[in-house]
Request: fold
Amino acid sequence: MSATPTFYILHGDDSISRDAALARMRKAMGEDGDLNRSEFDGTQTSAAEVLAAVKSLPFLAEKRLVIVKGLISFVSRKGAGKTGKAAADRLIAELPSLPAFARLALVENELLSEKNRLLKAARTMENGYIKGFKKPQRLASWIKQRAQNEYDAEISAAAASAIAMLVNDDVLRADNELHKLVCYVDGERAISEDDVAALTPYVPEANIFEMVDALAIGDGSRALELIHQSLHQNPGDAGFGLFGMIVRQFRLLSMTRDHLDRGGGAAGQAIGQAIDAHAFVAGKLATQARRFNALQLDAILKRLQRYDQDMKTGRIEPRLALELLVTSLARA
Reply:
């Protein structure tokens, strides 16, 4: 590889790290960078246009930056046909001879296959820089590191896990939620799980866990309070959505109870793999499942099924069904 690459391939689904690398390239262009920077949508432009742009002499500067998003995947996709092949061939032929002032950034939102013909060819070129940005496998750990390194903030393990569960492994959403929480605590203390519940859509999930805890100890009034709180926070939900969350919770509890009764591992990760749930959620389920036996959970699921049928046939309103459900379970 030459001392200064003239083309870059930045690909992968870790959009935070990938876009940060791209931002550094923009910053390196200096104050007059806008005069010598072009950006293209790779699905709407041709390889010829891109190459012409990056070969144009920079205006009163030493470098010209051209950013193209999605070009490689577009010309390599199934159905690209002869046009796609011709575009890939042209890029493969001309990338090695880009002028020294060129800075061509080919950006892809997903990891490219190692079998991708253009990627394989680019790896043999001395003037290129290629980096894959893979979404972290353990998002909660990434969130803790991100809080410390990027925001100089502290976050508890439970809070980081709660965010990871909330965003369903979406790195960009995780960073957005983390940024809100960092601003919320404003350096006064570490971010806690209570902060996550107070500031994010995690509240309904948290309420369901707390409601089941209340039912387990027979505290019907607290369970009803949480039901009404969830409905108030989601005025568009007539009750069907919340009922569905409760059904899901007891199904997961039943699966967790069965897993434990069969001698399965009690750790959150082991339970999560067994029932296909996030490890953080699985850890909480393990605690709750121990408060019920298999017969109790089976009876609860049958009762939920009856209420579900009554709601769908119009025999009972969803909100009334939820209140009757809580009342009956608290007495069980």
Q: What stands out?
A: The two ends are 71 Å apart (CA to CA). Strands lie at 7-11, 37-41, 64-69, 102-108, 128-132.
